[in-house]
């Protein structure tokens, strides 16, 4: 890693990270307290401790528990004793099946977080130790540790006194979360050093995702097509929508931006005290993209009235008040750089990206659940159904959504 690392124990203490004990009820996800763990314990504690101690933390390892609701990486909350006081960090095993080149991915993250820290340090009233992810280096000063089995591990400073939520509970949350993502795009507009690595090529390329779905339907290797007939038909009926954004990009009409590419609501930390979107997290897919990808994924998750995997589809709809709040918030951060071609396509981007993610869930269901973590049978099918119900709701609300965008642009 470049530069001299700041000893982590100093940061933990100076920034008050040591104030919150693990049982203090802070840093909860809305799904429950630290003890709630939808993810299984995938690694034994001995392994987690051995890995954790590879990082520059001058404290005593106490415990590690599975943490959060991410679908991709293995995330653990680690508790330490630093100078006799409790402190937390986030330890992650990077999913190297999904991310084929973790060293490239970590290069991106170091560049992005370094740039954000530089900006925050130069802006009064901001706290660079809390408003961006901070990678804790290994003892040999690398951004990741590779274990004997070839797994890639990293350690982050724990963003204290903030939560992630899986469902937006009010317009203020939608506004603050989307503003954080809009600001994030704005702050990265002048990232020096050339193009970031493509950590997952063609990540939001809807026609390619469609092709993969069609291949899976054709093979039907798990004999699941019959159970998903309705959802497959829904996708086929929406095929024309798939190329709307990619056509604009390929015809040179849509500007390239550095985008987050995974802007669902639980990838931004909401400050417990101020309610602000304090820190954008999950930077694995930050790469060159299109502003519409990020807006579209926010429309998929922030105005949704249900969880992403809700089984009762009557509960799934787009709340226009939340959509208005998210549009206002995003534009507050992004208005300064967005072009008219981008603002003109904000509403349709919601449908296209929701379709893209729905196609991915459905494809994974047909392939036997090989990509997204699942916690029950048919989980990916349930998730796909929610996406398609959201698209129907967006189709019904199109006029109202257009009016909202007009109001704020
Ligand atoms: P995934 O890629 O699997 O989604 P994330 O990086 O999003 O993994 O992490 C999963 C969850 O862990 C997040 O939704 C959040 O609740 C929590 N989390 C991740 N990083 C931090 C952090 N630095 N501080 C506090 N919580 C975090
Ligand atoms: C995954 O990593 P996580 O859980 O924040 C996925 C996104 C999907 C999302 C759906 C690298 O996000 O693309 O939109 O699930 N991330 C990756 O919830 O595939
Ligand atoms: Mg995540």
Features:
409 residues, alpha+beta, Aminoglycoside 3'-phosphotransferase, Chain: A, domain 2, five-stranded antiparallel beta sheet, three-stranded antiparallel beta sheet, binds 2-acetamido-2-deoxy-1-O-phosphono-alpha-D-glucopyranose, binds magnesium ion
What report would you give on this structure?
The protein is an alpha+beta fold. The protein folds into two domains: 151 residues, Phosphorylase Kinase, domain 1 (2-Layer Sandwich); 238 residues, Aminoglycoside 3'-phosphotransferase, Chain: A, domain 2, CATH 3.90.1200. The protein has 13 helices and ten strands. The strands form three sheets. The chain has a five-stranded antiparallel β-sheet with strand order 1-2-3-5-4. Strands 6-8-9 form a three-stranded antiparallel β-sheet. A two-stranded antiparallel ribbon has the order 7-10. The protein is globular and about 60 Å long. The structure holds adenosine-5'-diphosphate, 2-acetamido-2-deoxy-1-O-phosphono-alpha-D-glucopyranose and magnesium ion. The site of magnesium ion (MG) has 3 residues, from loops.
SSE string, helix = H, strand = E? HHEEEHEEEHHHHEEEEHHHHHH
Please identify the top-level CATH class of the largest domain.
Answer: Alpha Beta
Distance between the termini: 41 Å
User: Strand sequence of the main sheet, in spatial order?
Assistant: 1-2-3-5-4
Strand content: 5-15%
Shape field = globular
Would you tell me which CATH topology of the largest domain applies?
Aminoglycoside 3'-phosphotransferase, Chain: A, domain 2
Bound molecules: adenosine-5'-diphosphate, 2-acetamido-2-deoxy-1-O-phosphono-alpha-D-glucopyranose, magnesium ion
Total of helices:
13
| Computed CA radius of gyration, to the nearest angstrom | 21 Å
Estimated helix fraction: 40-55%
* CATH superfamily label of the largest domain: Aminoglycoside phosphotransferase (APH), C-terminal lobe
What structural class is derived from the secondary structure elements? Answer: alpha+beta
Architecture of the largest domain, CATH level 2?
Answer: Alpha-Beta Complex
Arithmetic mean pLDDT: 91
- Unreliable stretches (pLDDT < 50, length at least 5) are 2-38
* Count of beta strands: 10
Largest sheet: 5 strands, antiparallel
